[in-house]
């Protein structure tokens, strides 16, 4: 029997008992159960006919997930008989705590493995514009769904990545923690870590911005007065150091050192800063010395060329 590429069901499939009697508790045996169920109901032709008319993968996935003949078994009968690991807040927390224990012993690779597992099992937010109905999580706050456990997993993994000098990956996990309700009283730690990553990457301006954010978020910290005072002193020193680095930058250094494409959601074209021909103005950075800064109450500040400047010069 030839398979129809536009058919949701094709070929002959043996029936597998509800308890997973075949011993294959995986997607393949689940698929065989679904096929057998649809065949027993005589729905193969009608379902395949509708499925074959769907134009996009999104429509096909929507059809399968919304069709009780195809998802009912997974949702209501056989789920626990298969090795489909469900999101589990308590298990995620347990694995994260194990990661903390080995991290304190400087076993970074083991900690990374535990944090990876913790992140996988933490409840995740649905994708944007999702048509799937996600079940309520028993650990949510009264005012709505929270993904704090996921945020804590990302934050802890970022600490390991920082120690491994994977600075860009560390920053990525910090951003993910921010996006998933990371606790306000701990935000200062992540901003400080992000600043140190950017400092290591010599992205002075962004490092300064992050360090100042850490300084601002300290007001929400629950540290003891002694620890808080010590941390603030360290941040103040870092801010002073970074301010000196930023003050010493020439405008061209921003294009060379701070690649803004890393912060964009899509590829962008970075234009090369044109070179200034002739002497530079002491009054206005980045312009020729024959350009003067003027002011009037009606116009505000404006630039005036004191000599004729040919086009392109």
Spell out the key features of this protein.
about 325 residues; mainly alpha; two-stranded antiparallel ribbon; 12 helices; 2 strands
Ends: how far apart? 75 Å
Largest sheet: 2 strands, antiparallel
How many DSSP helices?
Answer: 12
> How many DSSP E strands?
2
Helix content: 40-55%
Please write out the topology.
Blueprint: H1 27-40, H2 44-52, H3 57-66, H4 68-77, H5 89-104, H6 108-121, H7 148-163, H8 167-179, H9 187-200, H10 204-217, H11 225-247, H12 251-257, E1 291-296, E2 300-305
Antiparallel strand pairs: 1-2
Helix pairs in contact: 1-4, 5-6, 5-7, 6-7, 7-8, 8-9, 9-10, 10-11
Explain this structure.
With 313 residues, the chain is mainly alpha-helical. Among the domains are: 183-250; 277-307, no CATH class. 51% of the residues lie in helices and 4% in strands. It has 12 helices and 2 strands, in the order H-H-H-H-H-H-H-H-H-H-H-H-E-E. The protein has a two-stranded antiparallel sheet. A hairpin with a 3-residue loop joins strand 1 and strand 2 (300-305).
In short:
The chain has twelve helices and two strands; from the N terminus they run ααααααααααααββ. It is mostly helical and 313 residues long.
